[in-house]
Amino acid sequence: MLTGKQKRYLRSQAHHLNPIFQVGKGCVNENMVQQIEDALEVRELIKVSVLQNCEMDKDEVAKEISTGAKAELVQIIGNTIVLYKESKENKSIQLP
C-alpha cells in the first residue's frame, strides 16, 4: 500500500502524462486489463480516461482495473484514473 506522501509524489509525477487508455462503451475487459498491466510494467505510472459513454461508474472502473492489473490506485480526478505499479525490470520511479 502507498502512503499519503508517496501518493502525493506520484500525483506530481503523473501531472504531465496523457491518458494512454480509454474505457468506453465496452467497459473493462480481460484484454484491456492485460494491456494495462503490460503498459504498467514498462512505464510504472499511467493514466486511463473514462469516456462519457462508459456504462460503469468511474470508481468501479478504477477498482476493476487496479485489482485486475494488481496496481495501486493513486487518484481519480475528473474522468481520469491514475495507476501505479512497481516495475520488475524497468524500475524508474523512486518513491519517497
Give me the secondary-structure topology:
Elements: H1 4-14, E1 21-23, H2 30-43, E2 45-50, H3 58-68, E3 72-77, E4 80-84
Parallel strand pairs: 1-2
Antiparallel strand pairs: 2-4, 3-4
Walkthrough of the structure:
This protein is of the alpha+beta class and 96 residues long. It has one domain: Translation Initiation Factor IF3 (2-Layer Sandwich), CATH 3.30.110. 38% of the residues lie in helices and 21% in strands. The chain has 3 helices and 4 strands. It has helices spanning 4-14, 30-43, 58-68, and strands at 21-23, 45-50, 72-77, 80-84. A 4-stranded mixed β-sheet has the order 1-2-4-3, with helices on both faces. The longest helix has 14 residues, at 30-43.
In CATH's first tier, which class applies?
Alpha Beta
How many separate domains make up the residues? 1
Helix coverage percent? 25-40%
* Uncertain stretches of 5 or more adjacent residues: none
* Alpha-beta classification: alpha+beta
> Mean pLDDT, as a whole number?
92
CATH-wise, what's the superfamily? YhbY-like
Radius of gyration: 13 Å
CATH level-3 fold name: Translation Initiation Factor IF3
How many alpha or pi helices? 3
Q: How many beta-strand elements?
A: 4
InterPro entries: RNA-binding_CRM, RNA-binding_domain, RNA-binding_YhbY, YhbY-like_sf
Organism: Anaerobacillus alkalilacustris
Domain CRM: 1-96
Protein name: RNA-binding protein
